[in-house]
Amino acid sequence: MTSSNPYPPGDLRHTFCALLDGMALWAKINHELDQARHFERAARPRCGNCRLWMTRACPAERNVNGRNRGPHMNGAACAVFAEKEYVQDYRDTAAKHRAAAAISGGAP
Predict the structure, then answer these.
(1) Among 6, 43, 98, 101, which one is least packed by beta carbons within 10 Å?
(2) pTM for the model
């Protein structure tokens, strides 16, 4: 991030502008890391991320009094978990956000 500080070093206004530049950089890094955490959470192996969720092929689905009952979308993945296609996109997006934070000067 390039500093837009028009004041000479030693001037109190220079220090204040440098502080604001640092806060803006911190906010950018924090935003990128938040986005990465969001996509990492969305990519966890859960029932809602399974191709079989809410289908007859799902082993956890069952028919109760003529109505299908099954696991909640945030339920733990079972042994036949088959990841949906978009989950890898979520992981790739999370990696891009982590890389952007590292380029900006943030922790990995």
Answers:
(1) 6
(2) 0.71
